[in-house]
Amino acid sequence: MASVNDALYCVNHPHRETLLRCNRCGRPVCMDCMQLTDVGYRCKDCISQVRSSFYTAHALDYPIAALVSFGISAIAAPIAGLLAASLGFWGFWIAFLVGPAAGGLLAEIIRQVVGRRRGRYLWLIASAGTVFGVIAGNIGLLLWAGMFPLLHLPMLLFLALALSTVYARLR
Length: 171
What we know:
Elements: E1 8-9, E2 17-18, E3 34-37, E4 40-43, H1 44-54, H2 61-86, H3 89-113, H4 122-145, H5 153-170
Antiparallel strand pairs: 1-2, 3-4
């Protein structure tokens, strides 16, 4: 039986003496290897195990998210860009007010399409699909009508706000 005076050493740093233990697995950890959570001090291994249980996305959810974000952005971005660029100063206000709403709507559509499952990189795939869709939509508009609204400041503001909302909703 271990006595009270036996020193504990961190499982990751065998030369560091510690008095802390993970409250989930009970392994001794040093200050560099533990994190304070709402339920106490935990080692990084236990935290990553708990976090991975929240991610339930299937492998097919990632290409679905990419296709949905690409398709919606390719259609909506030229419309939003033309509207924001044609309104001049008011285009900034439209971009400022509608950009986050459009990003939230896109994120909610993606969540519904993938069955409300969460993925570790779903936000990244959806954001990349959105960027490529915006670029493709604007190139299509350039070829069709000779206009490229992506380079207007209201459109860039709209895109930045929509992307930040997609990131925040899907991360």
